[in-house]
Amino acid sequence: MVAPETRGRGVGRALGEYVVQWHREQGYRGIQFNAVVETNTAAVGLWQSLGFEIVGTVPGAFRSPAHGLVGLHAMFLPLA
Fold first, then answer.
1. DSSP strand pairing (68-78 vs 30-37)
2. d(CA 7, CA 1)
3. Could you give the C-alpha distances from 32 to 10, 23, 53, 69, in angstroms and in order?
4. pTM of the model as a whole
5. Confidence (pLDDT) at 39
6. Backbone angles phi, psi at 62, to 5 degrees
7. I want to staple 75 with a disulfide (CB 3.0 to 4.6 A). Which of 39, 52, 57, 68 is the partner?
8. pLDDT category, 80, cuts 50, 70, 90?
């Protein structure tokens, strides 16, 4: 999550790339995020561009002020 005033400047991508690199260097076999809000298209798109796949969605698990109840994606990236 990045501050609204820094969106579009590559901060989220830099953080995501660092997370993936660090886990690879530490010998992890995969990374799983359990709660990516499905209506946060910027976050979903970023993680997908880094190779993560949506492996499941918990419907209605998050109350969005703008959208009401929406799903939470579990996203996974195999590293091995």
1. antiparallel
2. 10
3. 22, 11, 9, 23
4. 0.87
5. 96
6. -135, 135
7. 52
8. confident
pLDDT score recorded for residue 51? 97
CA proximity to 47, closest of 35, 59, 58: 35
- Which residues, at least 6 apart from 13, have a Cβ–Cβ distance to it below 8 Å? 46, 49, 50
Q: Is 4 helix (H, G, I), strand (E, B) or coil?
A: helix
**Spatial CB neighbours of 75, under 8 Å, sequence gap ≥ 6:** 32, 33, 36, 44, 47, 48, 52, 53, 54, 55
37, 64 Cβ separation under 8 angstroms? yes
**CB-based contacts of 20, cutoff 8 Å, min separation 6:** 31, 50, 51, 77, 79
Give 4-78's CATH code, choosing from 3.30.300.20, 3.40.630.30, 3.40.50.450, 3.30.110.10: 3.40.630.30
